[in-house]
Hints:
145 residues; 2 domains; 64% helix
Amino acid sequence: MSNPVTSSSTDHDGTDRPPQTGQEQPALAKRMRWYDGFAMSLTMPAALVASLGASIGGLGAWGAIALWAASMVLATATNWIYTELAAMFPESSGGIAHYAAEGWKSRAPVVGPLASVGYWFPWTTSLAIYAGIIGSFVRAQWFPG
């Protein structure tokens, strides 16, 4: 009979993990492939469909181009910063609020909760706006009048 603490086991995807001893802490598996990132990015077309037409209608073609170009530059800068932060804390699962709390905990502990609200608020409001725009598209298409 083998010892369950020191015997090797198999992950949910069928790959073998190294044997764990009693002193090791469980860790998150960090195995993300390029197509995992591609699958997660498939939500962006919904945002484009919901907001591209509205931005062209409200800002005109050149205004929408400027808006989308500025948002692409900001997204690229944000991703670069996020990658740097993830490299600074490789042992944790991460998140903007977690990185802010870790980085500022000795100087200003209130930054962690503030970063949580600052990250949560734009995401929830954008989801509500997208739902409203898509709902108005559905109502205009299938339930006119």
